[in-house]
Design a protein that fits this description.
This protein is α/β, with parallel strands linked by helices and about 240 residues long. About 35% of the residues lie in helices and about 25% in strands. The chain has nine helices and nine strands. Strand 6, helix 7 and strand 7 form a beta-alpha-beta unit. The radius of gyration is 18 Å and the shape is globular. Bound molecules: adenosine-5'-triphosphate. Adenosine-5'-triphosphate binds next to helix 2. This is ABC-2 type transport system ATP-binding protein.
């Protein structure tokens, strides 16, 4: 287990990826510590989703080495240890939250009790029997998250889990994510909301298919000489463009 050996949860060396015949990741090197919350940030189109897809094993890599939980991401043994929540709500609208989570549990070989635990983790226990179609947008996002949590993956990759959510629900989701990290889960979370960087243990900053920096929120502010995460982000992205 990577938590015990201190082995990074994710390690990339010279990872290159092309999409539609064009290289979109240009030789990424990175290491992500197990049991931490890592923010993945950068302007639209910089390659965040492509990197996440590579990490969860659904994106072909041209060259370089990528290991996730000590194995190749395409290794079936590692697949069930990874949860991936895309931007689209990926649950069945006509099924209840519980039926959705139970379905994911069945696919994973997990129990109904695991499904109920995941529902409780995202704070939907009271709404477990309601069809997802009759939930609010934020509740439906949390239902998606619950399905990814079934069986408690060791790595959870979340593509903008708080997009379009109100501040209270965002706060709620971050509380759940932090408690998962405390249980040893590694979380890679993409976001466009710069103040969410402050909630992460460290932040991967990308620009045009390159990794500009991997630093703590405090280092991010210090390096940019500001107290505002949004300004720090802009400064570092612009600096990156001038290199
Ligand atoms: N299916 C595809 N075919 C060809 N090119 C693609 C495909 N999907 C993405 N790309 C290109 O790959 C690059 C990286 O896209 P990616 O979706 O990884 O960016 P992103 O940082 O996640 O963007 P956003 O923040 O807008 O979601 C972009 O230039 C994009 O146009």
């Amino acid at each position: 287990m990577s938590e015990r050996t201190g082995e990074p949860a994710i390690r990339a060396k010279g990872v290159r990826v092309s999409r539609g015949g064009r290289e979109v990741l240009h030789g990424l090197d990175l290491e992500v510590a197990a049991g931490s919350v890592i923010g993945l940030m950068g302007p639209s189109g910089c390659g965040k989703t492509t990197l996440m897809r590579s990490i969860v094993g659904v994106q072909r890599i041209d060259s370089g080495e990528l290991t996730v939980l000590g194995r190749s991401p395409s290794d079936p043994a590692v697949r069930h240890e990874i949860g991936y929540v895309t931007q689209a709500v990926s649950v069945y609208g006509d099924l209840s939250v519980r039926a959705n989570a139970a379905y994911f549990a069945a696919l994973q070989g997990s129990s109904r009790a695991d499904a109920d635990e995941a529902i409780a983790t995202v704070g939907l226990a009271d709404l477990a029997d309601r069809p997802v179609d009759r939930l609010s947008g934020g509740q439906a996002s949390r239902a998606s998250l619950a399905c990814a949590l079934v069986g408690l993956p060791r790595l959870l990759v979340l593509d903008e889990p708080t997009v379009g959510l109100d501040p209270v629900t965002r706060e709620d989701i971050w509380t759940h994510l932090r408690s998962l990290a405390e249980q040893g889960v590694t979380l890679l979370v993409s976001s466009h909301v710069m103040d969410e960087a402050a909630r992460c243990d460290s932040v991967l900053l990308m620009r045009e298919g390159d990794l500009l920096a991997h630093l703590t929120p405090a280092e991010l502010l210090e390096r940019a000489g500001t107290t505002n995460a949004e300004d720090a982000f802009l400064t570092l992205i612009r600096e990156g463009g001038e290199r």
